[in-house]
């Protein structure tokens, strides 16, 4: 087996603003595995918030792939490696390689139904109410009145921003994402207004590790765990606090654990969301295998980039189709 790792920087079409930082680029790490004429690829996005960096992830990827090159089985390596971006890139490359070697699609190897087209959320960055409302109107104009909008918020003017976006998109499904920037008091204060505005979900309102108040707060709008939920082992402690779990491959450390996490979430009665970091279609493609069983899909990473890799996923009026074999899996 041969392995390569490289860093790619993709400029975003516009600055992407969330509660804790602003992004101008998607910095991704791509892993390529080659064996006996078959080639598999995987992509990850290192995340500063989780203590990751491009050099650090590339170093970790090289350590993992060196074990593969020396003949160690990936199943054994996977379960001894920590979750996160590095394992994600290698795991997805292994899935792709096995699919290419076998002549079967990745979902067949996983023993799950073939993924279909799903509606993906399209994200509106943090901004003032007028700016966010204008972006919501533009999304409805392109995706139709049943668009799925993900509204990024910080702790300021929450109700005003939500009301402005709802007025601009009266029939759209709207989810809000606070990226752990709210207090329990703020959540309790705005919950009735978000319920009145028919918000479908609140994603990670409180900081990870500070979400115990969710047990006592009346969740009139379902609450989703993102930063609080990385792998399946996290889920038992979240019962009674959250209603939905956001599965992201860069958190789980790849498709293998994402499938386990989705199965465990269903066992525990959680709803599912499938999310992403900023990245290209190569990074989104494996997540489509989980998206079919999810209540919400948020796989708009390539839409945030000014251009995507070719071939890429097909996006049309907010609908993303599963990957062709030439892209992944």
Summarize the structure.
By secondary structure, the protein is α/β, with parallel strands linked by helices. Helix content is 35%, strand content 22%.
Write the SSE topology.
Layout: E1 2-17, E2 22-35, E3 38-44, H1 54-69, H2 74-80, H3 85-102, H4 106-110, E4 118-119, E5 122-124, H5 129-143, E6 148-152, H6 158-168, E7 173-177, H7 184-196, E8 201-203, E9 223-225, E10 244-247, H8 249-252, H9 255-267, E11 271-274, H10 281-284, H11 288-291, E12 296-297, H12 301-304, E13 315-316, E14 319-320
Parallel strand pairs: 5-6, 6-7, 7-8, 8-9, 9-10, 10-11, 11-12
Antiparallel strand pairs: 1-2, 2-3, 4-14, 13-14
Structural key phrases:
single chain; 12 helices; eight-stranded parallel beta sheet; 2 domains; alpha/beta; TIM Barrel; three-stranded antiparallel beta sheet; 35% helix; Enolase-like, domain 1; 329 residues
Description:
- The chain is α/β, with parallel strands linked by helices and 329 residues long.
- The chain has two domains: 2-109, Enolase-like, domain 1 (2-Layer Sandwich), CATH 3.30.390; 118-320, Enolase-like C-terminal domain (TIM Barrel, Alpha-Beta Barrel), CATH 3.20.20.
- It has helices spanning 54-69, 74-80, 85-102, 106-110, 129-143, 158-168, 184-196, 249-252, 255-267, 281-284, 288-291, 301-304; strands at 2-17, 22-35, 38-44, 118-119, 122-124, 148-152, 173-177, 201-203, 223-225, 244-247, 271-274, 296-297, 315-316, 319-320.
- The strands form three sheets. An eight-stranded parallel beta sheet has the order 5-6-7-8-9-10-11-12. Strands 1-2-3 form a three-stranded antiparallel beta sheet.
- The protein is globular and about 60 Å long.
- The two termini are 18 Å apart.
- The mean pLDDT is 97.
């Amino acid at each position: 087996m041969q392995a390569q790792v490289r860093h790619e920087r993709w400029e975003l079409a516009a600055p992407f603003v969330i509660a804790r930082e602003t992004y101008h680029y998607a910095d991704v790490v791509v892993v390529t595995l080659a064996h006996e004429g078959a080639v598999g690829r995987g992509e990850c996005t290192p995340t500063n918030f989780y203590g990751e960096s491009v050099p650090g992830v590339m170093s970790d990827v090289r350590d993992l792939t060196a074990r593969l090159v020396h003949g160690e089985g990936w199943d054994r390596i996977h379960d001894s490696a920590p979750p996160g971006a590095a394992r994600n890139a290698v795991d997805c490359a292994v899935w792709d390689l096995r699919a290419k070697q076998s002549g079967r699609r990745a979902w067949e190897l996983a023993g799950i139904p073939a993924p279909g087209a799903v509606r993906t959320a399209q994200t509106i960055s943090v901004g003032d109410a007028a700016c966010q409302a204008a972006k919501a109107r533009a999304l409805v104009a392109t995706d139709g009145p049943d668009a799925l909008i993900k509204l990024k918020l910080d702790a300021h003017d929450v109700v005003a921003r939500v009301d402005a976006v709802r007025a601009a998109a009266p029939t759209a499904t709207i989810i809000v994402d606070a990226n752990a920037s709210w207090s329990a008091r703020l959540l309790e204060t705005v919950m009735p207004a978000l319920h009145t505005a028919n918000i479908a979900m609140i994603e990670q309102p409180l900081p990870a590790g500070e979400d115990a108040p969710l047990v006592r707060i009346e969740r009139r709008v379902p609450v989703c765990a993102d930063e609080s939920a990385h792998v399946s082992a996290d889920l038992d402690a979240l019962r009674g606090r959250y209603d939905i779990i956001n599965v992201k491959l860069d958190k789980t450390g790849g498709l293998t654990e994402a499938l386990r996490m989705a199965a465990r979430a269903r066992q525990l009665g959680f709803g599912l969301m499938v999310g992403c970091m900023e990245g290209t279609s190569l990074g989104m493609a494996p997540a489509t295998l989980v998206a079919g069983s999810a209540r919400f899909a948020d796989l708009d990473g390539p839409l945030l980039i000014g251009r995507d890799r070719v071939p890429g996923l097909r996006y049309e009026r907010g609908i993303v189709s599963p990957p062709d074999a030439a892209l992944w899996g």
